Amino acid sequence: xxxxxxxxxxxxxxxxxxxxxxxxTDGGLRGSEIxxxxxxxxMKDTDPTLTKWKRLYNSFSESQNRLQNSNExxxxxxxxxxxxxxxxxxxxxxxxxxxxxxxxxxIGIKMTNSATYENVSKATTLSEAQQRASxxxxxxxxxxxxxxxxxxCNAELLTENYxxxxxxxxxxVADRIRTMTGLYADGNVLADVAFSTAAPLxxxxxxxxxxxxxxxxxxxxxxxxxxxxxRNPTAHTPKIKFTIEEDEALDVMTIVSFIHRRLDxxx
Length: 267
Prior knowledge:
- The protein has two domains: 12-133, no CATH class; 141-264, no CATH class.
- Helix content is 61%, strand content 2%.
- The protein has twelve helices and two strands, in the order H-H-H-H-H-E-E-H-H-H-H-H-H-H.
- Strand 1 and strand 2 form a beta hairpin.
- Helix 5 packs antiparallel against helix 6 (126-132) and helix 11 (210-236) packs across helix 12.
- The protein is elongated, with a radius of gyration of 24 Å.
């Protein structure tokens, strides 16, 4: 049995979800990998000609019905997630681990980065399962984004809500500028007053020459551009009509992080 996790019987619908994730068409285990791990775990490959997830599901079901527990299934997953299999493929490993843990959370199990198991409280809703393992938040942590992003957007990050997370992140810039300046304005007016070169309330340098003034104005324009590109459209456009993918959301978050770091150093 894997680790100290108590033996149990995994329900068919949870088992099906786990198999579909492990053997998904894009990013899942290859057929040859499934066959090799089944052999290593001394499990019967009952239907090797079926599609990958059905092949895996049938093998898992046969094992569980025969043993009346999920020990061999958990052993298979542990073999499949051994970190040594993923040299040079860190992102693939983390994605699989996160997606796997979302599903395992419904049966009260979590897999660690070292492919060992821990008992956890069972998730009962989809949102709770998503919060257990957010791939989106993990990617942002890898990028070392500014802590204010997590402060303002944690709920959206945990549920991988790209639309609302970028909206809240951009709002965090405006809120921080108001906190730093005492202004009550918003949008471009807020940025223009805060970063005025004549009487700046926020300065990112001493404004001693054209180069420094250009840098100062450039950050102001970047902030206004972010307001125009993200905050204004997301505030007035229904989510269904404003599509943002994960890669785009990550890029926006990186820009917001850069702005916060520049504000950290403001004079």
